[in-house]
């Protein structure tokens, strides 16, 4: 039984306008007796659509707590927001985030993008640790298809509207909310860039279980990504249902007109009738009793003036329309709101408190900040500032609450018991509905037993293909059965979800594994409390999904949980022998690693293992780093190579990688060494979560300081004086194709054909001249996909190495600038493919090269 | 319903030739409109589309001689009915606006004077061009006729703009735009701030008035769905260049330029759910456009030739030009391959 995340019941908001000192005051009902439910899991995108003045933005502001209801209830996670304690409100504001319409207005144009994230960190105290915080920002950006390197140091005006809006999504994601209120997030962004924002929303919904309240007047985007839709007309729900049902077959006369008016992008299918609106007066006198649409309705009847029509049930489940044309049908009931008491622990533990001593001072300062921010927020143009002010306010409230809790815990208990009185008991266990996609175990192909916490990968071939798994349960054991599917790649395109059914030891239906009620999704979790016996899981294609496709994608299945407690003496295991511990036997010897030098290689197959060695000195601290590229921008399929580090005596020292998390791009193992030779084995982990071996190219590096030299006199090694490091991508000028002389500030464009193609340029310099040599590359096309950076080297008049033009130490990048102060003579620039970049690709993209004059 | 005018659909009423507009910035000029040429025929509705920053609005403001500094026209020719607009003196130009060329601006709410009644604003337009009108009764009749053309009730005659809805204000702007029967009317995103139903009413009004009064119309917008409903030809702009200009049916059924294909592909539909097609915007620095074809950095079909030679407009059929090397006869094989990739991605 899904528990509701957000319930809105009989919500009414009345604005008073006009009049002076109460005389001739007019009231406008912005929202009238409105009801809505969003379930906790699975996450959904609920669209609120309607014309301007229909009350959709009022609804968003109510849910965000910017304004208060005139009457009715907004219940989040079983708790009415008007009854929330300060600590609960603080948690609520973390859980409900906003993304606004204007992707420019919410940014301060004078600050770089990273400032947005710094503010979030400050308000919500996400992390005190800089590197942990940077990882969080990067992870947030990756979720929305961006990279920190590309955006963080830019100013808002340097980004497209789509990028700006996705950064707002990343910002919201970092706070790990459960609901995002997105008020017209795409309406100010060009149509061609909207898809990237919608894709980010889908990823947050499917991969991170974040629901959306998507406020829009654009029905086409609602149709593309929305799960449910509420069509508002003058503050009331005219029609609601699954977005596809409502838009494909609207039932309410207003919604019919609306959908008919959406221009069809087909010049051969033009509007066939001219429509007109009734006069303004008629529209405004739209009676407060009866149907709001009466003045415009082509089907109006006398009955419509008597009473506002309730929502009647249509043919499709959950599809309802408020129109007396359907009077003979059943009236859709308004479900009573579910309120329940939850342990308030998560609300209280949320704010990460610093030391107690400065609390009082902090509270005073916070209050001052609130006042200042509130004054600032009077400028209603900038909703974001208002939002920040709210966040500040809640910080202060939380501080107050913390003081109260610290000084009088008895009082806190009193508050808790008072709250408990006001609520109903937790929802009673309802029998799980027998969904239509319940799959019978008969005829299923036996796929064997599942091991706890081990991922199994398989694929459904067609509609008739059913797989049967089993696993053993112990009495009271808690597990989560997880199913996950990859789907169609980068864009969050068509996902064909496999579905399953879980049966208990006595053959009884226990739970569905998947949900046909929402758009095909990437993952589904079924949490179970087991009894003793063998459970059966049947996985197969759901009969048909919303796209008419069967779930024939590859899937992963896993039973996650703790092993049942067996009474046995726990063995002291200082280091867990992870399952991906790779044996050094039979590994191909790849030689010794030098300190701080990156080595690149690639794992060919499951059996391919590489052995590296490096020497340690006693007490030397190093970090062994492994890093892999994977399939591009979207955080798509990453096949992480894994490794194991063995010590001088052959002992297991540390794993190099982590199978417990989603394939990741990098893993660092910090080690304090003893004297002797260490061995690193790199290979494919047996299987990752996606059932794939880690066969991507990888980089391995031992990073750290040289060991301190022993005090005893030792012949110093003859270190040659190398004023400049000769990076590995230094390109020799011999054999380069002469591309002629460069004129100052003139942009040259060319392309590197292959790894052997090297271009040479010349330019004359005078003594003391300052220039900036810039190289820039486009990458392969639309999506900012794989960028193969060309690299270069700058040589001076005497053939000496002057500077590198590019950097293999970072992810392939679009541009590189080298600022130089020149001496007189002819300089040479060599451009070519770096031997290989991180992805094992040569830099063969088109590039631009320019020598720009620069200020000293 | 007034009688529809008969047009000579081959008569050119507006001829834009080699128009180039820059915006001066401290880091160098931004090329907003780069040597574009096109013709508008009598009675025609031309849609001008492209993503933000592609220069479509700048083109319109250039035609109207309304480019504000730091923008300036570098060179080009704009002929309306044989009159070279760029040669007009300030006073002649002022007369020419509203009679030769008129603009229905973006966001009508902000372009009406809030302190003047609707009638006074329209009378102002008429009298500033035709002198003081002594026959008040005739003037009122004329305004009522305009109201009728755009589907407004006569009662708004004495109203102030704030008393009108957004759709009505937009229609007042249309009435003012056509009051003096100009040759060419330019509607700049005239409907994009409106709700779908009102948008439909305003768009239909625009087309109806165009037919009744007999003007030629340029509609600037980015809503490809709306343009499909109301225009005859579409000109597609990308980063200051015109990449394709074609009859509307061709653009939607058979877009030729790779950018037009991308544009058509990314139209959201309410008929079927499709995988999202993700693209980034213009990626190059507008001060420093790439050599050769402007679109080649994002083009899936670009090859060396595109970096070397800027594609000239190629006329593939009557009134249909495309600026892409794929449609050059000598690259026919490449074109066949490209189209095959499109068919089987």
Please describe the topology of this protein:
The complex is a heterodimer of chains A (856) and B (345).
Chain A: E1 4-17, E2 26-39, E3 45-49, H1 56-63, E4 71-76, E5 79-80, H2 86-95, E6 96-99, H3 114-124, H4 130-143, H5 148-151, H6 161-174, E7 179-183, H7 191-208, E8 211-216, H8 219-225, E9 228-233, E10 236-242, H9 243-248, H10 253-261, H11 280-284, H12 303-306, E11 312-313, E12 320-321, H13 345-349, H14 359-377, H15 383-407, H16 409-421, E13 445-449, E14 456-459, E15 466-473, E16 478-485, E17 498-503, E18 509-513, E19 523-529, E20 533-541, E21 554-561, E22 588-592, E23 599-602, E24 609-616, E25 621-628, E26 641-646, E27 652-656, E28 666-672, E29 676-684, E30 697-704, E31 737-741, E32 748-751, E33 758-765, E34 770-777, E35 790-795, E36 801-805, E37 815-821, E38 825-833, E39 846-853
Parallel strand pairs in A: 3-8, 3-9, 6-7, 7-8, 13-15, 22-24, 31-33
Antiparallel strand pairs in A: 1-2, 1-4, 4-5, 9-10, 10-12, 11-12, 14-21, 15-20, 16-19, 16-21, 17-18, 17-20, 23-30, 24-29, 25-28, 25-30, 26-27, 26-29, 32-39, 33-38, 34-37, 34-39, 35-36, 35-38
Helix pairs in contact in A: 2-15, 4-6, 6-7, 14-15, 15-16
Chain B: E1 12-23, E2 30-41, E3 45-49, H1 56-63, E4 71-80, E5 83-84, H2 90-99, E6 101-104, H3 118-130, H4 136-150, H5 166-178, E7 184-188, H6 196-213, E8 216-220, H7 224-230, E9 233-238, E10 241-247, H8 248-253, H9 258-265, H10 304-308, E11 314-317, E12 320-322, H11 332-343
Parallel strand pairs in B: 3-8, 3-9, 6-7, 7-8
Antiparallel strand pairs in B: 1-2, 1-4, 4-5, 9-10, 10-12, 11-12
Helix pairs in contact in B: 4-5, 5-6
What does this structure look like?
The complex is a heterodimer of chains A (about 850) and B (about 350). By secondary structure, chain A is an alpha+beta fold. Chain A has five domains: about 280 residues, Rossmann fold; about 70 residues; about 120 residues, Jelly Rolls; about 120 residues, Jelly Rolls, CATH 2.60.120; about 120 residues, Jelly Rolls (Sandwich), CATH 2.60.120.380. Chain A is about 20% helix and about 30% strand. In chain A, a hairpin with a 5-residue loop joins strand 35 and strand 36. In chain A, helix 14 packs antiparallel against helix 15 and helix 15 crosses helix 16. The longest helix of chain A has 25 residues. Chain A starts with a strand and ends with a strand. Chain B is of the alpha/beta class and about 350 residues long. In chain B, about 35% of the residues lie in helices and about 20% in strands. Chain B has eleven helices and twelve strands. In chain B, the strands form two sheets. Chain B has an eight-stranded mixed beta sheet with strand order 6-7-8-3-9-10-12-11, with helices on both faces. In chain B, strand 9 and strand 10 form a beta hairpin. The interface between A and B is large, with 64 and 62 residues.
């Amino acid at each position: 039984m899904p528990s509701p995340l957000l319930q809105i019941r009989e919500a009414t908001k009345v604005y008073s306008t006009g009049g002076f000192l109460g005389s001739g005051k007019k009231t406008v009902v912005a929202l009238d007796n409105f009801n809505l439910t969003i379930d906790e899991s699975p996450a959904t995108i609920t669209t609120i659509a309607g014309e301007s003045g229909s009350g959709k933005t009022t609804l968003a502001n109510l849910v965000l707590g910017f304004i208060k209801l005139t009457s009715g209830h907004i219940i989040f996670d079983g708790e009415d927001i008007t009854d929330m304690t300060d600590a609960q409100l603080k948690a609520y504001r973390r859980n409900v985030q906003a993304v606004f319409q204007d992707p420019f207005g919410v940014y301060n144009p004078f600050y770089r993008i990273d400032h947005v994230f710094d503010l979030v960190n400050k308000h919500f105290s996400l992390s005190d640790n800089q590197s942990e915080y940077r990882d969080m920002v990067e992870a947030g950006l990756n979720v929305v298809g961006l990279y920190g390197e590309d955006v963080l140091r830019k100013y808002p005006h340097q980004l497209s509207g789509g990028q700006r809006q996705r950064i707002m999504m990343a910002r919201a994601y970092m706070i790990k909310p459960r609901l995002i209120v997105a008020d017209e997030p795409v309406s100010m962004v060009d149509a061609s860039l909207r898809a990237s924002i919608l894709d980010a929303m889908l990823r947050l919904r499917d991969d991170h279980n974040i629901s959306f309240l998507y406020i829009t007047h654009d029905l086409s985007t609602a149709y593309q990504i929305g799960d449910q839709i509420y069509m508002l007309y003058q503050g009331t729900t005219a029609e609601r249902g699954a977005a596809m049902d409502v838009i494909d077959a609207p039932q309410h006369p207003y919604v019919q007109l609306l959908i008919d008016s959406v221009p069809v992008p087909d010049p051969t299918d033009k509007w066939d009738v001219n429509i007109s609106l009734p006069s303004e007066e008629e529209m405004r006198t739209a009676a407060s009793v009866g149907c709001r649409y009466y003045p415009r309705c082509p089907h109006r009847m006398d009955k419509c003036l008597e009473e506002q029509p309730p929502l009647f049930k249509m043919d499709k489940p959950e599809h309802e329309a408020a129109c007396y044309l359907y009077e003979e049908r059943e009236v859709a009931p308004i479900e009573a709101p579910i309120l329940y008491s939850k342990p308030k622990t998560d609300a209280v533990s949320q704010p990460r408190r610093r030391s107690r001593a400065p609390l009082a001072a902090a509270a005073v300062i916070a209050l001052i900040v609130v006042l200042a921010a509130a004054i600032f927020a009077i400028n209603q143009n900038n909703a974001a500032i208002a939002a920040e002010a709210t966040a500040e306010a809640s910080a202060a409230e939380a501080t107050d609450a913390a003081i109260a809790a610290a000084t009088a815990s008895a009082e806190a208990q009193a508050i808790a018991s008072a709250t408990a009185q006001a609520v109903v008991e937790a929802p009673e266990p309802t029998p799980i509905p027998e969904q239509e996609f319940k799959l019978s175990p008969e005829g299923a192909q036996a796929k064997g037993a599942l091991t706890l916490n081990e991922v199994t990968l398989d694929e459904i071939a067609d509609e008739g293909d059913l797989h049967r798994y089993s696993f053993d349960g112990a009495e009271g054991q808690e597990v989560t059965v997880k199913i996950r599917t990859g789907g169609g790649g980068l864009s969050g395109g068509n996902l064909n979800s496999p579905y399953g059914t879980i049966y208990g030891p006595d053959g009884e239906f226990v739970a569905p594994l998947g949900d046909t009620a929402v758009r095909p999704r990437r993952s589904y979790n079924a949490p179970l409390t087991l009894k003793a016996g063998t459970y059966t899981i049947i996985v197969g294609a759901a009969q048909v999904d919303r796209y008419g496709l069967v779930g024939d994608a590859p899937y992963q299945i896993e039973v996650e949980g703790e092993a049942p407690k067996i009474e046995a003496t726990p063995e002291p295991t200082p280091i867990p022998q992870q399952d991906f511990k790779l044996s050094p036997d039979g590994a191909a010897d790849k030689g010794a690693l030098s300190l701080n030098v990156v080595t690149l290689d690639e794992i060919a197959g499951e059996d391919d293992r590489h052995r590296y060695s490096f020497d340690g000195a006693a007490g030397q601290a190093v970090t062994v780093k492994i890093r892999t590229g994977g399939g591009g921008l979207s955080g798509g399929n990453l096949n992480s190579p894994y490794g194991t580090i063995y010590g001088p005596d052959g002992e297991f020292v540390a794993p190099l990688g982590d199978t417990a998390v989603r394939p990741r791009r990098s893993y660092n193992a910090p080690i304090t060494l003893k004297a002797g030779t260490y061995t690193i084995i790199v290979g494919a982990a047996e299987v990752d979560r996606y059932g794939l071996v880690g066969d991507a190219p990888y980089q391995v590096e031992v990073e750290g300081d040289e060991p301190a030299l022993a005090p005893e006199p030792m012949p110093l090694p003859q270190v040659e004086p190398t004023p400049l490091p000769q990076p590995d991508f230094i390109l020799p000028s011999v054999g380069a194709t002469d591309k002629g002389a460069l004129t100052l500030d003139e942009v040259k464009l060319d392309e590197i054909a292959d790894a052997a193609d090297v271009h040479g340029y010349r330019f004359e310099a005078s003594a003391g001249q300052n220039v900036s040599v810039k190289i820039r590359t486009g990458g392969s096309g639309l999506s900012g996909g794989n960028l193969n950076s060309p690299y270069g080297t700058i040589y001076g008049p005497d053939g000496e190495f002057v500077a590198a033009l590019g950097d293999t130490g970072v992810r392939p990048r679009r541009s590189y600038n080298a600022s130089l102060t020149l001496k007189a003579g002819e300089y040479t620039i060599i451009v070519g493919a770096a031997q290989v970049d991180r992805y094992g690709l040569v830099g063969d993209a088109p590039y631009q090269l320019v020598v720009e004059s620069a200020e000293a | 319903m007034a009688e529809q005018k008969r047009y000579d659909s081959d008569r050119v009423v507006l001829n834009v030739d080699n128009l180039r507009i820059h915006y001066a910035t401290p880091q160098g000029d931004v090329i907003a409109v780069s040597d574009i040429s096109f013709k508008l025929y009598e009675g025609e509705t031309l849609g001008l589309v492209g993503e933000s920053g592609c220069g479509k609005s700048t083109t319109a403001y250039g035609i109207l001689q309304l480019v504000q500094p730091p923008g300036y026209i570098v060179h080009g020719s704009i002929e309306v009915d044989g009159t070279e607009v760029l040669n007009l003196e300030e006073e002649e130009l002022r007369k020419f606006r509203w009679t030769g060329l008129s603009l229905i601006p973006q966001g009508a709410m902000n372009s009406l004077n809030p302190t003047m009644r609707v009638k006074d604003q329209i009378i102002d337009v008429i009298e500033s061009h035709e002198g003081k009108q002594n026959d008040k009764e005739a003037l009122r009749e004329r305004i009522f006729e305009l109201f009728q053309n755009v589907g407004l009730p006569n009662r708004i005659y004495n109203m102030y703009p704030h008393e009108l809805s957004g759709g009505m204000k937009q229609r007042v702007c249309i009435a003012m735009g056509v009051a003096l029967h100009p040759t060419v009317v330019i509607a700049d995103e005239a409907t994009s701030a409106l709700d779908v139903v009102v948008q439909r009413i305003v768009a239909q009004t625009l087309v109806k008035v165009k037919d009744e009064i007999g003007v030629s119309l340029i509609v600037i917008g980015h809503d490809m769905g709306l343009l499909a409903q109301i225009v005859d030809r579409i000109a597609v702009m990308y980063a200051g260049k015109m990449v394709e200009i074609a009859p509307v049916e061709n653009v939607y059924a058979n877009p030729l330029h790779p950018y037009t294909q991308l544009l058509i592909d990314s139209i959201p539909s309410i008929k079927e759910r499709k995988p999202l097609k993700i693209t980034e915007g213009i990626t190059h620095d507008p001060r420093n456009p790439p050599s050769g074809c402007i679109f080649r950095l994002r083009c899936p079909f670009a090859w060396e030739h595109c970096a070397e030679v800027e594609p000239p407009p190629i006329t593939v059929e009557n009134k249909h030009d495309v600026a892409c090397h794929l449609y050059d006869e000598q690259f026919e094989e490449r074109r066949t391959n490209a189209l095959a990739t499109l068919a089987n991605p």
